[in-house]
């Protein structure tokens, strides 16, 4: 039920990008995700003037669960590179 509500809200959402953020964005997507495919996640690069990194991991929409360690490693490495 929660996921269904999230998907419904996503369909109603209208993006408003008056000005891009000034911060890094670290994005993740599942290579086989039909709900948030890698190309749509890559579009987040336009939401900031800061650095953008996009990691495409094996799996579908729920790719984080079986790859929790890999995800944590990538996030930690990204945070360690911040000034």
Describe this structure in words.
By secondary structure, this protein is an alpha+beta fold. 35% of the residues lie in helices and 14% in strands. A two-stranded parallel ribbon has the order 1-2. It is flat, with a radius of gyration of 14 Å. It starts with a helix and ends with a helix. The mean pLDDT is 87.
From the N-terminal CA to the C-terminal CA, the straight-line distance is 41 Å
Number of helices: 3
| Strand numbers in spatial order across the main sheet | 1-2
Number of strands: 2
In short:
This protein is of the alpha+beta class. The protein is 35% helix and 14% strand.
Name the descriptors.
about 80 residues, alpha+beta, two-stranded parallel sheet, about 35% helix, flat
Secondary structure topology:
Blueprint: H1 2-12, E1 25-30, H2 38-42, E2 52-57, H3 68-80
């Amino acid at each position: 039920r929660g996921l269904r509500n999230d998907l419904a809200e996503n369909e109603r959402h209208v993006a408003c990008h008056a000005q891009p953020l000034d911060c890094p964005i670290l994005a993740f997507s599942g290579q086989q995700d039909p709900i948030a495919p890698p190309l749509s996640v890559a579009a987040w690069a336009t939401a900031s003037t800061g650095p953008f990194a996009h990691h495409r991991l094996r799996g579908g929409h729920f790719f984080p669960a079986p790859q929790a360690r890999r995800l944590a490693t990538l996030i930690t490495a990204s945070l360690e590179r911040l000034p």
